[in-house]
Amino acid sequence: MRVLLADDHSLFKEGMTNLLRARGIEVVGSARDGFEALELARALTPEVILMDIGMPRCDGIAATKLVHTELPQIHIVMLTTSAADDDLFEAMKSGASGYLLKSLDADTFFALLSSVMAGEPALSPEMASRILREFARGGATATASAPEADPLTERQIEVLQKVVDGLTYKDIAGGLFITERTVKYHMREILQKLHLRNKSQAIAYALRSGLVKLPGLETL
């Protein structure tokens, strides 16, 4: 994995660089603000950008919009101290592939970071819970409805329901007595049929359309 860091705190970037390299991850560069992040993204074409929100000149959310518009193949993961709902939802609407808090422990951080390369959103547990509840209320606008979506099979709806329930692909496979590869195949088919890019968009679409239900929805 080739990673670009975007953060205006030099000490944090140095520590994060050492941590990433100790796990075998290549750090291709570091930016001090959003504009520099865009310039380095163009020049270095990283696979992932770890993007802080509070930066001078151009903040992380504005930078995410710029990078995602020009270089949509790059996964942008917010890595921040901000747990504010406004920052979370604006970041996801701007094209972020994840939202992680700097308070995460290292093992959880790397587990979530690796999920990005598998096409899954990297969300701190608290952030994921907030997004699901907001989607259930119909208040979030992080994703758009898919135009002319093809109908899903019963098995695909079953898989999607379990994804909404918060199960991992491994757990879904065990519960349905299929392989994890088959679960991933179903998710690819679901995304293709619904004209969506990632799992978080599929969850949003499923809840908004009434295709599946969020457990405990009646209590929200």
Outline the structure in words:
- By secondary structure, this protein is α/β, with parallel strands linked by helices.
- It is globular.
- The protein has a six-stranded parallel sheet, with helices on both faces.
- Helices cover 52% and strands 12% of the residues.
Let me know the largest β-sheet: 6 strands, parallel
| Fraction of residues in β-strands | 5-15%
Total helical elements:
10
Class of secondary structure makeup: alpha/beta
Spatial shape: globular
The overall average pLDDT, rounded, is 83
Q: State the low-pLDDT regions, or none.
A: 139-147, 216-220
Distance between the termini: 39 Å
What is the element string, with H for helices and E for strands?
A: EHEHEHEHEHEHHHHH
Strand order of the largest sheet: 2-1-3-4-5-6
Computed Rg = 18 Å
Number of strands: 6
Residues in helix, %:
40-55%
Give the arrangement of secondary structure elements:
Blueprint lengths: L1 E5 L3 H13 L3 E6 L2 H11 L3 E4 L8 H11 L4 E6 L4 H9 L4 E4 L4 H12 L4 E2 L1 H13 L16 H11 L4 H8 L3 H15 L4 H11 L11
Parallel strand pairs: 1-2, 1-3, 3-4, 4-5, 5-6
Helix pairs in contact: 2-3, 7-9, 7-10, 8-9
